[in-house]
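seq:
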Amino acid sequence: MGSFRRPLLAVLAAVAAALAVTGCVSMPSAGPVLSYPVSQETGGQNGQNLQFTTQLPGTGWTPQQMVSGFLIAAAANQDQVAREYLAPAERKRWNPSLTTTTYVYQTRPNVLNAAPQPTVPQPAGTDGKKGGGQPPSAVVQVTGKIQAILSTKDGTYAVPSPSGPNSSGPQYYTLVKTGGQWRISAAPSVLLLTQAQFADDYDLRNLYFFDPTDHYLVPDPVYVPLQASASTLTTRLVDYLKSPPGDWLAEGATETAFPPDAKVTATLADNLATVNVTGTISKAQRAQVASQLLWTLVGSGQAGSQVTSVVLIVNGKPFYPSGSTGNPVETQSQASYGPATGASAATAGQLVYYLDSAGDVYSNRVGVAGVAGKQTLVAKIGAGYGQIAVSQDGKYLAALRGQELYIGPIHGPLARQQGSGYTTLSWDPNDNLWTTTGTDEQIFVFRAGAALNSRQAKPIEVTVTSGANIVSADQFTALQIAPDGVRVAMILNADELSFGAIVWAPGRGPGLGSVRIQLSPFNVGDLTSGFDQVTWYGADNVITLGGPTSTLTEYPVNGGTPTSQMLDQTVQSITASPGQALIAGVTKDEMIEASNLTGAWAPIATSAGTPVKGISPTYPG
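struct:
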């Protein structure tokens, strides 16, 4: 078994599948990590047999061949083979589990040719004998434009600035002659990956952390090595939950329920993970910790047993989940907390809202096979409105008339808000309304509660950041907040789908103080038809409506394989909600629905077969 390395907290996507369904994937400044086989630059020997096959070093290999072979073995977790490329002293020092950084190159990294350095005579010793010479040495450079930098210590992921210090910095490998053969005497503590090796060695998992209000679990995608045993993987995943993530979901976006000074150990036997926590931990924290463990561990483990249940031991005493009747063994269905599932009000779970031509807002419970339930008049807002959004708790309504924004209680009246140019609407779970202003390149959020009651509210301008940099000169075409209120899906410049995490001012809470969106490293570009809309479809998936071809595509937020369907009629809008039917607005003010993206679409009609007329169908949120 190869050594266990920290999972890549970046989103390492299956880009080939995205190419098949969207026509083009572009990474203007960030994106899924692509890695390539190691190649050699002009002046080096061909070494093609070294590019994809891990093998022991051969007799008479050149310095660049040695470096190429070492990189391949190290990336493939073949640690014993990799050690054979090292000089004796470096072999003792080198520890792949202590690798600090993973570099991924935008193009194939180049292993440059090296000119061996001559032997340097040493001065005579005190006995008058002539000193020996230092063995011949050589320095090999590995260069290339860096696409991404991953810290294997804490999992942080960064896309370097084109002019930054890490944009194209080389890695240096020093070699010496040992027994007449070149061996590496000094290797950087970095790891270079190839696409094939990554696909063979890593698999996708989610860590789960809490939103700032401690209501929902938010998935944080990670990749873990397939070489790790189920027991080792369990131990490491538990260890990662002890601290908030170090990636785009950090810095106030999410938090962990584990006390900072707690000691945590984990074991796995017969599909049961037993986790011991020692330290000061409240009753509420115990239920939260148990939920984090269950959602993170259940199903994990590539080799051997899968985790199906968890026992939490706190200061030597078992934690009994609610309704356990004295049994400390807890399954995921018993978890007190889980990912957000959309509308928080039970009465609004399956309601869909829409406008008619007269400007009346209706709610409806759409049944199976496209048959509508009882249509209920919600509000009369008047003609001229083209888009509505209802808060998750069903209390508030937002509407666009042209590019003017109106907000108020669900039953009215609505008040026009400051500004103009608004293009999209989305509510978070705390009744904050988020909107974009398209070509004005701005995102605004309107506070919840009393400020939205029939009068103008002062909007908060949202800053968008990527790492330490503020994102500017981007047109925010559309925006949708995830049901957990932490993550956001955005369309930039009509051709790029991006994701981000909402970070409110420290200590103020959602809806208070300044706010920014920290972009995820994952984005997808569609330069063929572009993106028109985006809607959340589950805790970790979104669906986009693309261009004039009415193509619907489901994208996992973690960068997994997308799924597409091209409809045979013009789709004007799309709305989704976890566990509910997909509903699309089409021409002639009609609506169609399907049980899932690849299912059959049917017109929404009354029991008598009359089409239900409406535009801008939307689930709460």
